[in-house]
Structure formats: structure tokens, C-alpha cells
């Protein structure tokens, strides 16, 4: 009799439960956008939150869940109930990670507490911290595409990510999905719990700037004729073609027209680097909006970029121009190859729009590289790349235990044989990890045209509120380190030593034991030890945080 009473009480305890669910946009392992279902069940309990996720949940996902629960508990006493968060997302990858579901979880928990049903014709993405502040996330183009393909009328996106504005604007128009930005969880909650039949309207956010160019605000620089030619072509193309979207994307038109006017003013007054930066970014937003996404046109654009990169390679192999132009040309060729390598492998709408952006950047970088690499000085021998390689290896060893995007790019460039590009990336890395050099920047000058252009650009960034002083100092430090390394190469008189033969090129540094740069091998042992320590730490962490059985990750969130 006692046994049946216990069973009955347990059935009562767990039988009366409510649940809320949402179809959430996510990015799969193959880069394709998709929708996954996530639910929250509410049961009588003691204020605990349990998470049961398939496949295994990553660290960023777990941290986002903790923040969501902490925020909800700060608003409501929930000591009389338990929550169970469930999802099956085996279609995505071997693990479910990222902060993108944080806002959705908070909304679902709040809807259960308030006993308000959720709408399922709109979806949401975005992170949240313990105070309820909305955090921007990535993969917005793929997620918007997945939401539209999945029949959603609208997608809620954190307003902290306007850099994807052109991608979202194009997808909204092509897919029919409406994009709505939100600043607070309360705004998202109101939309997702409203039962009124609403007509949603896309409101794409483009950054606004009231910056007025004045030549008195920034330092003047000596122009580089090869770079200036490329920049002028970009500025002219932007200034004329922006009119194509005037009646189609009015918000984008106002933003890009402002950028076109600014870029033209900078170029006309000799501030080439700043003009090129503004024109480059704005032009690729424009091409994202007005470029053709037919398979044939995308293939033609890819062929044109590939041909351009072949031309640059040929120029660099016989280059005998100035020492400044060579690494700058090679850097932009390297960036162009990276952009082309990153082209989406799928044929979804978001993949095509993303391809427009990537190929535009590759085309502009390659165009600049082609102009820079075309310099020829009669009677000067071909450049010796081995000196760049030796400088790279010294810096790679010096910064081996540091990390950052530029260091990773330097390794990639080195492995591809782009030693000039690797030196440029390492100079950028140095500018980020050595902020103690700020005290030397106020009176720093140089006679080198490229350094002058970068210092002038830094001055422009500092005068424009859209970028600010931090950007200014970072570019100044980059100019300092770049100048220092080029001076060292000049002192080594590298241009009279002949071109390095293919036989002496070093294989990728990820295989140091088979390379002339065997001195990196000692650092490999250090890295191996660090990896072993990390593996043990992760294993202990998993043992303490929960258990994994048959691909199912279950743990309990404890928020005091």
C-alpha cells in the first residue's frame, strides 16, 4: 500500500507541469542555417534548473544558460518550482555551443512564470548576461535565412550587431523574413507573448555618423602612387554606383552615400589610406545589396578573382620594386586567398549573399595587390624572400605562447609561403600585445610613405567618433613595429641577395621536425605539455559538472 502511495505522489508531483518551446535558428557544422526546437518544462520543486541536451553542450552554451537562469531568479522567486531545459540538436554538430539561445531561454522561463503562451510565427537569437543585458551573436545571415525558410514571419536580433546590416537587408528582401532588432529582454518578451495579429516591419540599423571631414583634424601624408590608383578606382565606383540602391534600400542608401562623400573628400585631400578604408568597407556593403546571386554570375566573379590572384602571384615572383610595396601587396593577396577559401560550400540564399561579400573583399584586395606588385625598378635584382622568412621565424618564436587572430593569420601566411604577409600580420599582433609602446607615439615620425599613410590614418581614426582613440593608438603602434622591421630588412640589404629558391622554402611550421626551422621544436614540447594539462582539466571539469551518457548531457544549474 505504501509503495502505491509513493508512486501516486510522484505522479502528482511531476504530472502537473507546463511547458514552453520555441523553434530557434542555429548554424550547423557545415555552415548551413537551421531551426532547432528547444523547450522548458516547469514542475513543482525547490528552485532548481536542469538541462538535458543532445548532443553534448559546450562551455559557452552552459555559461549562457547560467546567465539566463540568474536573470530570471533576480526578477522572480522560483523556489517552489523546478525547470527542465530540453533540446535535441544532433543535426547541428558533435556539440551544441554558443550563447545564442540565452535570450530565448529567459523568455521561455518568464512565459511559464507569467502563464503566457508564446508565438511560434517569430523566432529569436541573442545572448544575455546575468543583469539581463542583451549580447550580440554571430551567424545572423544564416539564422535569418533559416528562419525565413522555416516559415517564420520575423526574427528578433540584438541591436548590438549593425555590422551585418547589409547582409540582413538583402536577406529580408529576398526571403521575405522581417528583421526586428531588440535592445532589452522585455522588448523581445512582449513581442513573443503578444497574441495580436501583427504586421512586422523590418528595421535594419545602419550606423549613423555626423563626422565632418576637415584637413585640419588629421596629419597629412605623402601619397603612394600605386596604392592611390587603386583607392581612386574604389572611391569612384562607390560614388557612382551607390545611386543604384536609392529607391530600393533607402536606409542603406543614406548610410552609404554619406560614406561615399566622406571617402571622396579624404581622397581629394590626399588622405589615401583613410579614403581606401572607408571606400572598401562601404563598397562591399553596396555589392552585398545590389550584386547578382545567380549561379552563373557568382561563378564569373569567382573566375575573375582567381585570374587576378594569378596575375599578382606572377608579379610577386619577379618583383624588383621598392621594399615597402612588396609586403603590402603580398598581405592583400593573402587576405584575398583567405576570403576565397572561406566561400560557403552550400547553395542556400544566405550562402550566396555571403559569397557576394567575400568575393567583393577578395576582388578589392587583389586589385590593390596587383597595382602594388606591378612596380618595377630597372636594374634592380629580384627581392630575396628569405630575409622576410628569417624575420618571421624570430617573431613566431618570440610570440609563440601568445594568441590572437593576427598571430593565427601570420602562421597561416607563413605556411603558404607568404613571408611578407606574415611579417605584416606579426606587426599587427605586436601592436595589440605591446600597448606599453603608447608613450613613444606622440612624437613618432617617419620618412617612409607607407608609415606616413598609416600615421595619417591613425590620426583620422582618432578624430572620428565612429572609431575613437583606441583604434588610433593601435594603428600607430602597428606603424611603429612595421617601420622597425622594414628598417631592419633594409639594413640587411636584402634586395641584392637574389630570390630564394623553392628548395630552401620551409614546410609548414606545424611540422617543425621536418623543417629548417627545427628550433621551433622545443616550443612544440611545451605546447604538448600544455595541451595534456588542458585535457586533464577539461576531464575533471566534466566529472564535476555532470555526466554524459550516449550523447546526452544532463546537469543541474545552481544559482544562489
Textual characterization of the structure:
The structure is a single chain. The protein has 560 residues and is an alpha/beta fold. Among the domains are: 17-205 and 551-557, Ribosomal Protein S5, domain 2, CATH 3.30.230.10; 381-505, no CATH class. It has 18 helices and 13 strands. The protein has helices spanning 2-15, 59-75, 102-114, 140-149, 165-175, 185-193, 225-241, 250-268, 272-290, 295-317, 325-341, 349-373, 386-398, 405-416, 419-433, 449-463, 469-491, 521-545, and strands spanning 18-27, 33-44, 49-54, 56-57, 81-88, 95-96, 122-124, 127-128, 134-135, 154-158, 178-182, 547-549, 552-557. A hairpin with a 2-residue loop joins strand 12 (547-549) and strand 13. Helix 2 (59-75) runs parallel beside helix 3, helix 8 packs antiparallel against helix 9 and helix 15 crosses helix 17 (469-491). It starts with a helix and ends with a strand.
SS-based structural class?
alpha/beta
Percentage of residues in DSSP E strands: 5-15%
**Regarding CATH, which class of the domain at 17-205 and 551-557?**
Alpha Beta
Question: What's the mean pLDDT score?
Answer: 81
Largest sheet: 6 strands, mixed
Task: Summarize the structure in short.
The protein is an alpha/beta fold and 560 residues long. The protein is built from 18 helices and 13 strands.
Amino acid at each position: 500500500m505504501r509503495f502505491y502511495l509513493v508512486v501516486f505522489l510522484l505522479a502528482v508531483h511531476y504530472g502537473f507541469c507546463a511547458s514552453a518551446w520555441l523553434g530557434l535558428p542555429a548554424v550547423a557544422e557545415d555552415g548551413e542555417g537551421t531551426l532547432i526546437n528547444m523547450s522548458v518544462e516547469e514542475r513543482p520543486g525547490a528552485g532548481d534548473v536542469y538541462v538535458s541536451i543532445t548532443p553534448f553542450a559546450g562551455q559557452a552554451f552552459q555559461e549562457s544558460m547560467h546567465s539566463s537562469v540568474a536573470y530570471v531568479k533576480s526578477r522572480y522567486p522560483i523556489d517552489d518550482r523546478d525547470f527542465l531545459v530540453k533540446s535535441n540538436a544532433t543535426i547541428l554538430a558533435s556539440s551544441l555551443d554558443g550563447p545564442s539561445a540565452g535570450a530565448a531561454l529567459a523568455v521561455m522561463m518568464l512565459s511559464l512564470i507569467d502563464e503566457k503562451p508564446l508565438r511560434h510565427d517569430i523566432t529569436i537569437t541573442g545572448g544575455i548576461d546575468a543583469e539581463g543585458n542583451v549580447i550580440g551573436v554571430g551567424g545572423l545571415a544564416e539564422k535569418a535565412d533559416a528562419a525565413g525558410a522555416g516559415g517564420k514571419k520575423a526574427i528578433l536580433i540584438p541591436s548590438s550587431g549593425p555590422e551585418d546590416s547589409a547582409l540582413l537587408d538583402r536577406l529580408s528582401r529576398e526571403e521575405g523574413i522581417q528583421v526586428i532588432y531588440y535592445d532589452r529582454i522585455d522588448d523581445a518578451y512582449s513581442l513573443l507573448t503578444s497574441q495580436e495579429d501583427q504586421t512586422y516591419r523590418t528595421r535594419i540599423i545602419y550606423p549613423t555618423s555626423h563626422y565632418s571631414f576637415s584637413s585640419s583634424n588629421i596629419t597629412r601624408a605623402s601619397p603612394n602612387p600605386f596604392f592611390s590608383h587603386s583607392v581612386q578606382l574604389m572611391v569612384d565606383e562607390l560614388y557612382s554606383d551607390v545611386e543604384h540602391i536609392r529607391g530600393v534600400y533607402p536606409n542603406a542608401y543614406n548610410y552609404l552615400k554619406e560614406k561615399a562623400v566622406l571617402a571622396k573628400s579624404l581622397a581629394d585631400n590626399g588622405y589615401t589610406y583613410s579614403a581606401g578604408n572607408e571606400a572598401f568597407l562601404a563598397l562591399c556593403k553596396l555589392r552585398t545589396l545590389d550584386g547578382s546571386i545567380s549561379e552563373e554570375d557568382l561563378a564569373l566573379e569567382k573566375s575573375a578573382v582567381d585570374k587576378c590572384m594569378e596575375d599578382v602571384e606572377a608579379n610577386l615572383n619577379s618583383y624588383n620594386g621598392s621594399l615597402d610595396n612588396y609586403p603590402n601587396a603580398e598581405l592583400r593577396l593573402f587576405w584575398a586567398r583567405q576570403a576565397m577559401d572561406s566561400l560557403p560550400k552550400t547553395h542556400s540564399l544566405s550562402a550566396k549573399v555571403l559569397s557576394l561579400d567575400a568575393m567583393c573583399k577578395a576582388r578589392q584586395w587583389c586589385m590593390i595587390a596587383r597595382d602594388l606588385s606591378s612596380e618595377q625598378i630597372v636594374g634592380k635584382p629580384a627581392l630575396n624572400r628569405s630575409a622576410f622568412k628569417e624575420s618571421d621565424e624570430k617573431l613566431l618564436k618570440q610570440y609563440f605562447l601568445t594568441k590572437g587572430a593576427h598571430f593565427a593569420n601570420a602562421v597561416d601566411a607563413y605556411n603558404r609561403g607568404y613571408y611578407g604577409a606574415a611579417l605584416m600580420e606579426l606587426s599587427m599582433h605586436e601592436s595589440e600585445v605591446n600597448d606599453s609602446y603608447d608613450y613613444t607615439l606622440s612624437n613618432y615620425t617617419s620618412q617612409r610613405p607607407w608609415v606616413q599613410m598609416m600615421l595619417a590614418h591613425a590620426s583620422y581614426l582618432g578624430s572620428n567618433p565612429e572609431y575613437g582613440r583606441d583604434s588610433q593608438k593601435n594603428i600607430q603602434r602597428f606603424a611603429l613595429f612595421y617601420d622597425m622591421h622594414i628598417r631592419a630588412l633594409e639594413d640587411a640589404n636584402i634586395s641584392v641577395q637574389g630570390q630564394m629558391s623553392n628548395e630552401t622554402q620551409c614546410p609548414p611550421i606545424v611540422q617543425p621536425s621536418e623543417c629548417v626551422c627545427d628550433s621551433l621544436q622545443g616550443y612544440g614540447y611545451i605546447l604538448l605539455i600544455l595541451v595534456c594539462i588542458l585535457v586533464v582539466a577539461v576531464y575533471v571539469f566534466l566529472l564535476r559538472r555532470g555526466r554524459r551518457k550516449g550523447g546526452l548531457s544532463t546537469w543541474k544549474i545552481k544559482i544562489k
